Amino acid sequence: MANSTNFTRKLTTGYRTQVLIVGGGTAGIGAALGAARNGAEALIVERHGFFGGIASFGVGMRMNQMRPFDAPRSAVHESVIENLLAYGDRAALIRHHSVMPNVEYLKASLFDTLEKAGCRYLVHAAVVDAITENDRVTGVVLSTKHGLIHVSADVVVDCTGDADVACFAGAETMNAAAEGESFAPMTLNFDVTSHRTAEAERFARSSSLSTAVESSRGAYPAVPQSFSLNRFSSATALNVNHGGTRTLGSLDGSDLDDITRAEAFSRRQVIEMVRAMNESGVEELSDLDIITTGAQIGVRETRRVKGAYVLTEHDAMTGARFDDAIAWRSGFLDIGFVRYERMRVHEVPYRALLPETVDGLLTAGRCISASHVAAAAGKSMGNCIATGHAAGTAAAIATRLGKSPRDIRVTELQDALRADGVDIPFSRADQTDDDMDPDELRGVRTSG
Prior knowledge:
28% helix, globular, 2 domains, FAD/NAD(P)-binding domain
């Protein structure tokens, strides 16, 4: 267990809050809004200079499962969407379940969203340790320009994606390697443009990009087997999503050496991909050029917290229901250009948000308690907001009652979530979303 005496530099007195959310990706935004909407003083901290996680630094990735079945999912989801659309038609496109943001509008709108909800926030603040007392998390240590800062809280919600707080606190975690699996590949998304962007997009929709660049592959070995050109809210640019580091084997995004190797490889890979398209002999691809790359590589999977319940592949594929359901997940089981299958809408039990052995802590997003495959079934951003919403709401209730999150009544949490528009228990007879965006069904992401 970590404590402040581990540091040679004295901790600077920091902040005090009721609910502390660590990690400002989509799960963190959901948790901050859930806590604030239920009356708690909430503080969310983020290591980047903006919120949104991969939705923002993915430079144009779809925010999937935001409105499954073409219907509002919760008041929290709608708050994110409405504050984005308040910037006008150029801020985002909405197709079926997906929100396709212009990331610069998204970054601004998420500050608006937090402020309107009454959430405090800090950016450029990276968690480096957890503070524990008698196996209960009471705060975290942040690395900032002021040095190391201690933030104390009644309840902490780990939305880091990598289960950083839980790991630092000594909670049991799981990962793909321990399960005999390979980590899902990491990907550095990027944007391209040309004076024929529309023609390039039409070509990518109708033809295999992998086949198109086959003649160039020998000169550019880093080009992945599968990749796509996807339109987003800008009319002049395309976002490129792809298999990333898959050819390098299993790399752990929570391992310093692995993620360093992945970043270096991926920066060069982007250039090779664009050159391969330019030299493919396909006129529509001949003058594509790079606009921007992500601020960092996108990590699909690292550590997951071992909870009182571990979600499974069977749960995802059969549409599992639970008495303690606090969210549901829809869409596809997607192991990042490795496996891509339609799944059934399935519920998430509250037990999957609670670490098995550490108190004062909740998890949300891609580090909740799930197997390697089940984790891939829930990482769409709308699903991450849903588990964040539940965790933040639970944290607010625990704070109000002066209880540990594991001691609150699940029925009270479910009532609060239903009041926020969450459909639990999930009520649709049909547990698959037949209104999926056709772009996702083109096959480009199922190959390779």
